[in-house]
DNA sequence: AATCAATAAAGAAATTTTTCTTTAATAAAA
DNA sequence: TTTTATTAAAGAAAAATTTCTTTATTGATT
């Protein structure tokens, strides 16, 4: 009878996963000057069922007009608000290696409400460098800097074997959410939000479909 | 009555998503010399229900021993085979920017059965460079090189607005699967496998949980 | 040797998510 | 003006996934 995650979740996770794509699509339409968009159009873009789009949007305050669709501007405004992209949250990134640097370079994170305030590493070669205006500090300075800045999220991009050490540090300081890019699972107290982003899962799905195709032949 | 994806899928996608983590965990245990592992241990590591692990593994040929668990070596061997990680598939990467470079540097892809044979870009500054032994060619050379090498997967890491152009090129040449890292959805024929890896979805999930916590207070 | 406790496995039940159906609205066409 | 076609919305049904329950096995303990 152990609860593995307190799911008092009104909005289904798959819905939340799809929403950023709806938003990106709507932003594109807005730039092109399109005023309305129907669930059919969105569904066609996403390659999913139109009623799925309707249902997803029904979790927000967006309402559509029969025979017309949804106002593009409304989708952009409401979704970015709804997804928490319109307020900036501050984060620290630990592990300024290949993946860490890529994330630091990515303006998309900024656009979607995440500001990486500082990066940390243990490699003397990278410490002191600035990556896309974000300074890389020695990991020992984590505490002091965390105190200074209002940081609620920690991003882990160190080698898998060091993930737990870094997570412990983040928890000890009082970070609320951890975005873990290593394939390792970390152990943290229940009230800390952990999001594991394992790219290799995607690879497994592709291979599975590829080989399934092979089997059918 | 349109079919959006032919799901003749025996193994649930969530199961496939979890398996690479089981594998990584088992590989770690193997290195430490542990011979058996129970579903309880795996579940504890993954923060999920033990019966979920049992059910997941039941899709493979792995069988466990009552009161003992599963043989670690068997999990490693069977899962890497099952997930398609034990045969090398060849890929091309288009867009040798920040994210593309990170992927090229990542030995994890190699370990999980993906060999990036060549990279492509349009930026003269990057063309000709070698990133982790993978050469960066001009995109115009895609066709010729694809002919030469046995490439079945294309990885897209160009800016979102160029994703469709690149996808079209890949399809025209005859690539079977596309791993799309841009937030844009691409249109391809039905027989092409597309895996969208949108990092921002993960961000949305974290924010949703964070703000939910705030609401509960 | 007998009992206990931990576990895998299989199936049932519950839950979650997607898809289908119906209804009502309304823009466009006849 | 009337008809037609497209759409959003709400709810029902279906499908997929997870969790629970039961059973059998077996290593460890008494
Ligand atoms: N590169 C990719 O595209 C990619 C893809 C998928 C997953 N990942 C995962 O992301 C993680 C990082 O991968 P990478 O390719 O960027 O590796 P990397 O070696 O390029 O970078 C890791 C960085 O972490 C630093 N580091 C190590 N221990 C540290 C510690 N205790 N505190 C602070 N910094 C520390 C290193 O000095 C290095 O700069 C790995 O777990 C990898 O599996 C990477
Ligand atoms: N950097 C990240 O961490 C990150 C995170 C999430 C998503 N993404 C997505 O990945 C994509 C790439 O991001 P990035 O940060 O690596 O961008 P980037 O600008 O660093 O790299 C893009 C590269 O693609 C090349 N390019 C552009 N058009 C091309 C074409 N038609 N053919 C071949 N090459 C072309 C550019 O020259 C450049 O080298 C974007 O869609 C971005 O949203 C990146």
From TrEMBL, chains A, B:
UniProt-recorded Gene Ontology molecular function terms: DNA binding; DNA-binding transcription factor activity
Record's signal peptide: none
Gene3D superfamilies: NAD(P)-binding Rossmann-like Domain, Winged helix-like DNA-binding domain superfamily/Winged helix DNA-binding domain
Higher taxonomy: Bacteria, Pseudomonadati, Bacteroidota, Bacteroidia, Marinilabiliales
Cellular component, GO annotation: cytoplasm
SMART domains: CoA_binding (SM00881)
Family per similarity comment: Belongs to the transcriptional regulatory Rex family.
Domain of life: Bacteria
Alphabetized UniProt keyword annotations: Cytoplasm, DNA-binding, NAD, Repressor, Transcription, Transcription regulation
Coiled-coil residue spans: none
Positions of the DNA-binding region: 21-60
Keyword presence, Transcription regulation: yes
Annotated ranges, domain CoA-binding: 84-185
UniProt name for this protein: Redox-sensing transcriptional repressor Rex
Subcellular location: Cytoplasm
Xref: SUPFAM superfamilies: NAD(P)-binding Rossmann-fold domains, Winged helix' DNA-binding domain
Subunit-level organization: Homodimer.
